[in-house]
Fold this protein.
Amino acid sequence: MAHDAAEASILELEPEQQAREVWRRLTPERWPVSPKDLPAGSALVGGSIRDALIGRQRRAPDLDLVVPEGALKLTQRLARDYGGACVVLDEARDMARLVLGGWTLDLARRDGDDLETDLGRRDFRLNAIALVLGDAPMLLDPTDGIADLRCSRLQAVQEQNLIDDPLRLLRALRLIAELPLTIEAETRVMLHRHRHRLPLAAPERIQAELTRLVESPGAALALQELKALDLLAPWQELPAPGFGGVLAGADPETTASCLTTQERDQALPLLRLTTCLSDEGLQALRFSRRQQQRCARLRQWLHRDDGKAFGSLPEAERLTLHRTLEDDLPALILTLPLPEREEWLQRWRNDDDPLFHPRPPVDGRTLQESLSIPQGPRLGELLQHLSLERAFGRLHHREEALEAARLWLSGRCG
């Protein structure tokens, strides 16, 4: 997740200074809702506080608010007053979301008699920090989450909290993908001990965490931990491919430096998803049909890798590779040995390369009009033949293509 502001950590300041600086960094004057419209005893919790403390806040951070009571009614009122949308997250637990002007505010009723009890029921200590709102905002850190931030440690508040919401098992890995954190030893044991509970979480929630994980800067380490903890076993192929199996040609995480930022942002998440989830797993976790198709196509060719940059493929199959993977080819390129990787990438960046961006040298309508060939399977076969001839440099312009089409038709007729 991109962050729009980068400031120095304030972890070493005194608590009162920290609270003032967190409040400043959260720019409440820009919020779509005035803090004065929130009830007494309201507090900001979770990621926005953590990120402000370490200086990685976003310009419009997601705001998680805890209110003493009536969170759903409050969200509905704010939506009416400010013209936003209220989304009910959990009516039984009195949780709702306000979507307004590019901002997302999640409001929840306090869990327990006081805020400290609520924080004690959260996932990890660095997420169990609250900023109590008021004339003089105050930080509340009952589990010593700021100490964890100082030493870049991820530590569970308590084991039962992970059992109560098994998605938190996966969230631990997503957090170390987003932040330079080390999982505390006992917490790591807990994650492994309760790994069988992860399928109890809603598939859509698992999908959302995995999507953020594979897009994060520390995804390579997080995926190694996922494999070691066996968290994704229910959704993996047997044996799970991993970067050392299917991807024998190169380490894609280290070779990604050859890509532009845009290319890398498209290729690496796709490659990571393909190698950590099976096709059935992607479907079970409710990934979009398009994402399932992209991963399936990439997986097909990863399994076809001959160790020779696909040099042993017949021409027709090589053309099929480039046609089916055209936009996503960089994900495959990352797995190739160095010389071929550089050559393939250079050719893929050339929109006029006839093999890496295959297309017929003439369109079907031109063939129908010039050669009196009707619409049908034979026209499709002819277009495939001409595409192949163009892809491998045997056709260069329209007249050559029409002559090649006449020869092909005469041979078929003969």
